[in-house]
Amino acid sequence: MVDISSFLKIGWENIWKNKSLWGFSFLILIEPIARIFVPHQTNPDLFASLLSFAIDLASYYLLILSIVGVSFISYHIAVGESTNLQVAYQTSKRIFWHVAGLMFALSLLLSPFTCAVFVYSYKYSPQFTDITRNFLVASIPLSAFSAIFHFSLAEIVINNAKIVKGLKSAWTIFFKHFVVLIALGLLLAITSYLINAIFSAGLMVTQNNLDILSLKNLDFLSLYSSFTNNNFYKLASTILAIFWGTYNTSVFMVAYLKYNRAVK
Question: Which are the contacts of 264, defined by CB distance < 8 A and separation ≥ 6?
């Protein structure tokens, strides 16, 4: 497992080498900030519905721009090349639909799994919190295949590959190094959960005058549901997700560059 420690170390070092990386990362923060001023409503009128839809649409656009930009800059950092926000933005716009298509294709591949979790949840416990718990538990094994998404994205960003070719190339690399990549995906996913759990527990205790017993109100399998109307939690958890997502991209980019050369 020497490769794993190497990927984690280099990935960590790389995220601090170019400030443009964080410029793209924090595009995702716009949505939770917008939701402070335009929250979801239970019975919205037509204008509120249209405004909410526009925010959702803009958020999805910014999400894809962020994903592509972070991957593009991570690649240039990893190979020792300089780049900037303008070049990364132009690249993000150019391959926007390729990446949107990749995400759609992966969602189709995962649809049987998603449907199975929904059917199981609805049959045994249709409450929202129970559904989120089931998805959390089920998502951990899926994180073992995280490299396939990151490698497919790298193929599109670096080689301008088509969606199917990118997926095939990603699978080839993943299959040849599946032990390390599965372990890496699981390690990053479990660490992400632990970071969120520790932050949520700390916030819960702080909000309740340092009362440790307040932790009984924290749903450790559905952390978000314990802070439903807490804007600070939404912003802070999004920042944590941004940071960890950027680190994930950097780590998998380092792994891609090493293993892609090995396959070739």
Answer: none
CA distance 163 to 165: 6
pLDDT over 80 (residue 113): no
Across all residues in the chain, what is the average pLDDT? 88
Contact residues for 153 (Cβ-Cβ < 8 A; gap 6+) = 67, 68, 71, 99, 102, 166
Q: How many CA atoms lie within 13 A of 78 on its CB side?
A: 26
pLDDT in tens, 182-230: 999 999 999 999 999 999 999 999 988 888 888 888 888 778 878 877 8
Closest CA to 205 of 178, 224, 226, 190: 226
Sequence-distant (≥ 6) Cβ neighbours of residue 248 within 8 angstroms = 146, 150, 188
First CA to last CA across the chain, in angstroms? Answer: 22
Identify which has the larger pLDDT, 118 or 71. 71
What 8-state DSSP symbol labels residue 42? S
Backbone torsion region of residue 162, taken as left when φ is above 0, otherwise alpha when ψ lies between -120 and 50, otherwise beta: beta
Number of H helices and E strands in the chain, helices first, is 11, 0
In DSSP notation, 109-177 reads: HHHHHHHHHHHHHHHH---HHHHHHHHHHHHHHHGGGHHHHHHHHHHHHHH---HHHHHHHHHHHHHHT
